[in-house]
Amino acid sequence: MITIIAAAGENNELGKDNQIIWHLPDDFKRFKALTSGHYIIMGRKTFESFPKPLPNRTHIVITRNKNYSVPDGCFVVDSIEKAIAICPKNETIFIIGGGEIYKQSINMADCIELTRVHNTFDADAFFPTIDSTKWELVSSQFHDKDEKHDHSFAFETYKKII
Fold it and tell me: Can you give the residue ranges of the DHFR domain (predicted)?
């Protein structure tokens, strides 16, 4: 199963200058819980936004740079199709960004795990619009803002309509 996992603002904002534009500890915890032990597929800029590879995950980086170097245990490919092809079959794989990779993979995915951040932001990267004729919202769990979270948000799960 191919699952897209992302956090996006009300206008589908993802980030600015290759950085996340909010701090939501519960979103980080959910991301870690869902993706640990799995293959994660990302674009080069997303990979470079991490200080080091995320523990307990196999990283596949998509880039057109044929000489791009990654640490041991990570893989480099030049397309979303090649990234998916090297993942184990019959396991959930996660597409983790960024905006261009989400756009290329949304029609291939089976599930979207979206943290909807209830605010609007200045951004330069965006999540594709979720087409309600192709995707059904199957669960939504609201979290109000609190001392650890500057914004309210909801964990939303979408399944592809077959």
Answer: 1-160
